[in-house]
């Protein structure tokens, strides 16, 4: 049974994520072809692009239009600090153009476009309106406008992630993966053949996945290309986790960058469990999508000690995996806690997502055995 309670929220969220993917594809193409100054470093030295701010403004605007600005709370990754600096005026102009070009297409996605183009200050307001810190009570939207920014600027995988937390639990998750091949085994085929994303035919690329809590179903839709109209549910098909439970046949995913997860620790765990295949290193929450779609069985993420995982990097992906039949916990086997603000507070060491109970149990045991000898 679909969760009837969130029907309107899901319907709007899926359409808005499709719009955001459309925006990102355009910006990524420009970025790669011009190698331009659309990328900035934030004060913490992480990267942010025209797409991050533009998606956040677009999603914030569309959600406010659908539900009323005064009724919604949005927790999201970006603020306007860097964008408001005088040296960012060129990038701000690009954001204004990207947002307005995207909003003008809203009818194609079954949503209403604004009567006239948004002004710069309306756009900055829309971005800074996403300043909620979430928490245990009420409903909060959680947005990562471009997850895997590094993948995005490198012309590789990235994701747009929108979720909703209701009284501390993730109840709805939508994940747009514009470069994720829709055909079965898309990621594995790409990594085995060492294909660049740009070498896969554009008709095969791009999907939006979504689910609601308790539905027991996760869905995938192809992105709509060129001038096509979005139709609900737009040839959505069910996705399901893999049934492989033999570690020798299982594939595990992890972040590309070893600064985001300790590769030598996970290699040790993999060895203890008896995983034989080489890890599938993919940018962004596409890793959760790969588990939900049954293309990989395990996702391990062990950040260095002191780093606190943010809710927007996980909310949508975790629910997709769970409703597709998988399990996601911390390394102590406990559920992730989305109720305590912007961080996954109380997370025990790292995150383990699995297609099933058997693999999960083995991994938790191996982490327990390996931890003492690690430097994490
Ligand atoms: N030190 C450290 N440890 C763990 N995680 C970190 C760390 N620093 C950043 N982040 C967050 O990681 C997000 C990107 O994760 P990925 O899985 O895509 O990593 S990777 O690019 O494949 O290496 C990335 O999300 P985006 O900023 O949206 O790209 C960050 O929120
Ligand atoms: Mg992120």
Automatic annotation (TrEMBL):
Q: Does the keyword Oxidoreductase apply?
A: no
Q: Which cofactor does it need?
A: Mg(2+)
For this UniProt record, the keywords arranged alphabetically read as follows:
Hydrolase, Magnesium, Metal-binding
What class does this enzyme belong to in the EC scheme?
hydrolase
User: Is Hydrolase among this UniProt entry's keywords?
Assistant: yes
InterPro entries noted in UniProt = DPNP, Inositol_monoP_metal-BS, Inositol_monoP_superfamily, Inositol_monophosphatase-like, Inositol_monophosphatase_CS
Q: Where, by residue number, does Mg(2+) bind?
A: 77, 144, 147, 313
**Reaction it catalyzes:** adenosine 3',5'-bisphosphate + H2O = AMP + phosphate; 3'-phosphoadenylyl sulfate + H2O = adenosine 5'-phosphosulfate + phosphate
Superkingdom of origin organism:
Eukaryota
Q: Per the UniProt entry, what is one GO biological process?
A: sulfate assimilation
Tell me its family.
Belongs to the inositol monophosphatase superfamily.
PANTHER family named in the record? 3'(2'),5'-BISPHOSPHATE NUCLEOTIDASE (PTHR43200:SF26), PHOSPHATASE (PTHR43200)
> What NCBIfam families does UniProt report for this protein, alphabetically?
bisphos_HAL2
What this chain does, per the record? Converts adenosine 3'-phosphate 5'-phosphosulfate (PAPS) to adenosine 5'-phosphosulfate (APS) and 3'(2')-phosphoadenosine 5'-phosphate (PAP) to AMP.
Q: What is this protein called?
A: 3'(2'),5'-bisphosphate nucleotidase
């Amino acid at each position: 049974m679909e969760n009837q309670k969130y029907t309107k929220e899901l319907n709007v969220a899926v359409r808005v994520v499709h719009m955001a993917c459309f925006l990102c594809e355009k910006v990524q193409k420009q970025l790669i072809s011009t190698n331009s100054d659309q990328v900035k470093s934030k004060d913490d030295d992480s990267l942010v692009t025209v797409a991050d701010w533009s998606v956040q403004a677009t999603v914030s605007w569309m959600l406010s239009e659908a539900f009323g600005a005064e009724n919604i709370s949005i927790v999201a990754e970006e603020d306007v600090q860097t964008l408001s600096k005088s040296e960012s005026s060129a990038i701000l102009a690009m954001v204004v153009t990207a947002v307005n070009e995207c909003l003008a297409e809203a009818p194609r996605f079954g949503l209403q476009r604004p009567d006239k183009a948004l002004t710069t200050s309306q756009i900055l307001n829309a971005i800074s309106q996403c300043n909620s810190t979430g928490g245990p009570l009420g409903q909060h939207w959680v947005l990562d406008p471009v997850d895997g920014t590094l993948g995005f600027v490198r012309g590789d995988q990235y994701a747009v992630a929108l979720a909703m937390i209701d009284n501390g639990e993730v109840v709805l998750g939508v994940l747009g993966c514009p470069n994720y091949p829709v055909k079965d085994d898309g990621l594995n085929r790409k990594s085995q053949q060492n294909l660049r994303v740009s070498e896969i035919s554009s008709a095969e690329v791009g999907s939006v996945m979504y689910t609601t809590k308790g539905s027991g179903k996760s869905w995938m839709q192809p992105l709509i290309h060129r001038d096509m109209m979005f139709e609900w549910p737009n040839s959505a098909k069910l996705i399901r986790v893999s049934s492989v439970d033999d570690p020798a046949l299982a594939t595990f995913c992890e972040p590309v960058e070893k600064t985001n997860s300790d590769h030598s620790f996970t290699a040790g765990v993999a060895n203890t469990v008896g995983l034989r295949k080489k890890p599938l290193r993919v940018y962004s929450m596409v890793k959760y999508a790969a588990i939900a779609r049954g293309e990989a069985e395990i996702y391990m993420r062990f950040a260095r000690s002191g780093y606190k995982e943010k809710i927007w990097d996980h909310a949508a992906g975790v629910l997709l995996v769970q409703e597709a039949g998988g399990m996601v916990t911390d390394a102590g086997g406990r559920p992730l806690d989305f109720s305590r603000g912007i961080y996954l507070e109380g997370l025990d060491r790292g995150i383990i997502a699995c297609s099933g109970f058997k693999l999960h149990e083995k991994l938790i045991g191996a982490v327990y055995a390996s931890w003492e000898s690690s430097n994490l």
